[in-house]
Amino acid sequence: MFRVSQKTEYALRALVELAIRRGPEPVPARTLAEAQGIPLRFLEQQLSALHKARLVASFRGAGGGCRLARDPEDIRVADVVDVMEGRLYPMYCLSEEDHTCFQDGRCGLQELWGDVHIAVRQVFERTTIADLAARHRRLSAESPVIRPEDLLRSGPSA
To answer: What is the pLDDT of residues 82-123, one digit of tens each?
Structure first.
């Protein structure tokens, strides 16, 4: 039902990875792509949009890459969604630019979708990249990665 695009998903994953790897040195796009399982060319497009929005600082050349342009506590999910999607509405009739519905402003469904929009927007507004990075760290620690060789063992070990 309510879905953001893959470009927003990838942008958020990249920012979380940058928050986790936060430090003075820029992180190469290839490192971000590999860590988050994102196709490099697609990620580069998202990083470009995040750079234009001043959420990511980019550095060219040897030793180049990117890093967060602000503290992860100061970057809200809403900032990222707005850059990648524009204003996101669960129904077209809520957009200020679209008044094609014949019941515009007189519909109980429009009010319902307005409530959904407000609820989702509040979550996006209060959730920061720092929050997402903390969740990522916690869930990664709780769910250890199983190595392929551990899955392929047959029988009890000697």
So the answer is: 999 887 665 655 556 656 665 655 666 777 777 888 898 899
Crossing angle for the helix pair 6-20 and 129-142, to the nearest 10 degrees = 80
Instruction: Tell me how far apart the alpha carbons of residues 15 and 40 are, in angstroms, rounded to a whole number.
Output: 15
Q: Are 54 and 83 in contact (CB under 8 A)?
A: no
Residues 73, 127: Cα–Cα separation, whole Å: 9
Taking each helix axis from N to C terminus, what angle separates 6-20 and 40-52, rounded to the nearest 10 degrees?
A: 80
Q: How many Å apart are CA 109 and CA 129, to the nearest integer?
A: 33
Nearest Cα residue to 81 out of 122, 111, 110 = 122
pTM score, two decimals? 0.78
Quote the Cα angle for 75-16-44, to 5°. 95
**8 A C-beta contact, residue 15 and residue 30:** no
Compute, in degrees rounded to 10, the torsion defined by CA atoms 14, 69, 3, 45.
Answer: -60
